Structures are given as C-alpha cells and as structure tokens.
Amino acid sequence: MAVSDPTLEVETGLHAKGHRYVIGCDEVGRGAIAGPVAVGLAVVDLACGPFPLGLRDSKLLSQKRREELAPLTAAWARHSSVGLASALEVDTLGLTAALGLAGKRALTRLHTGGAKIRESIILLDGAFDWLNPALSSSLPLLLQVKADRDCASVAAASVVAKVFRDRIMIDADATTPGYEWAGNKGYGSAGHFAAIAALGATAMHRHTWLKQQPEIDE
C-alpha cells in the first residue's frame, strides 16, 4: 500500500481556531537499548509556506535522505529543537518520565531561541500525553495517532530528532567501538546483543532494558 505524504491540514485547522503557532512533537529512540531518548520539536505558523519536498516520518526515509532533509526542515520551520534524556535517566526515571524530561528540555531550548511557547499548541504524535506531566504548567496539546505520518510539523520534528540522535550514536561508536552503534543506532540487533555478551554493557546502555530485550522500534 502506498504511503501518503504528510499535509498541513491539521496545523491549518489549529491556526484557524486561534493558535498562532503549532509545535509538532515526536520522539525517537523509544525502543533502543543504548543511547538517549530524543524529543524533536518543530514550530510552524501560516507564514512558513510549503514544507520541503519529500518530507515524511523519519522511519519512512533512508538515512541519506534524512540527512538531506534535516537542514531543509530546520530552515523551513519557524524554530526547531531537540531535547535528550540519557540512558541513565531512562533507567532511573522510567521511559515515560524520561520522554517528558527530554520534551521539557526541548521546549526550554525553543523558548531560549525566541519561540512564543505560550502562543502555541503542541501537536503530539500518539494517544498518550507524556509531555504535560513533566511541565510546571500544562500547555495546550492535541494528540493525534500517526501524526508523524500525516502532519508535516510532526514529520519535521521526527526528522530533526532522528538525525540529531543518530549522530550521537555514530560518534559514540567511534569512541566506544564494538557495539555496531553506527549501524544499529543503539537498537537491539543480533550483533548488538552479541557484543554486549562479549564486551559487557556500557554507560550508554539502558541496563534495566537489557533484561527485557524490548522490541526493535525506531
């Protein structure tokens, strides 16, 4: 079945309801066994215009195409940012709270960069709000299942976050070789588990997850 391109229909509808800015929000690294979780944000308004040709959910793009689109996407959005929560924070706080922490950090970076957070609504991929519980005061938020596939602002957030996190794992592979992070990006491939068995786990690993061996899900 062909995959449809995202649109700005949802964002345009939110603008029509009085929201000056829409902040697309998506996470990457949820199912990895090593490395941080990353939350990407992309702010759009009516003046942003057409989004970059070929923009899609990061999972539907090759690594090369994501790398090509990331700077175009960042230039298209009014603002963009990525927040991280470390493997240790995932172990200590649990995944949901770590996602919220990463999202809070991404919002802080947006605010520092001049984004009008209080004039915005967040468009969050999925059916569960993990972001607002991490904030000191809640923000207007719309949940939408498959927003990363259907909504251009969320697809933009997913691409920015995915490229940012992938680069962290590629750099980590150079300094801590043997775990194939440049290829698997911290997900639980057979080679990755074999390396853990042979070399042991590192500070980059989510130690509580190694016992569970979660499903691979980017």
Second CATH tier, the architecture: 2-Layer Sandwich
Question: What count of domains describes the coordinates?
Answer: 1
What is the 3D form?
A: globular
The H-and-E topology, N to C, reads as HEEHEHHEEHHHHH
Structural class: alpha/beta
Number of strands: 5
Low-confidence stretches: 214-218
Q: What is the strand content?
A: 15-25%
- Within CATH, the superfamily carries the name Ribonuclease H-like superfamily/Ribonuclease H
Query: What is the CATH class name?
Result: Alpha Beta
Say what the CATH topology is. Nucleotidyltransferase, domain 5
- Percent of residues in helices comes to 40-55%
Report the span from N to C terminus: 21 Å
User: How confident is the prediction overall: mean pLDDT?
Assistant: 94
Could you tell me the radius of gyration in angstroms? 17 Å
How many strands, what sense, and barrel or not for the largest sheet? Answer: 5 strands, mixed
Query: What spatial order of strands do you see in the largest sheet?
Result: 3-2-1-4-5
How many DSSP helices?
A: 9
Protein name: Ribonuclease
Organism: Marisediminicola antarctica
Subcellular location: Cytoplasm
Function: Endonuclease that specifically degrades the RNA of RNA-DNA hybrids.
Description:
The chain has 218 residues and is α/β, with parallel strands linked by helices. The chain is 43% helix and 15% strand. The chain is built from 9 helices and 5 strands. The protein has helices spanning 9-16, 63-76, 87-93, 95-112, 147-150, 152-175, 181-184, 190-199, 207-210; strands spanning 21-28, 37-44, 79-85, 120-125, 141-144. The chain has a 5-stranded mixed beta sheet with strand order 3-2-1-4-5. Strand 1 and strand 2 form a beta hairpin. The longest helix has 24 residues, at 152-175. It is globular. It catalyses: Endonucleolytic cleavage to 5'-phosphomonoester. One of its GO terms (cellular component) is ribonuclease H2 complex.
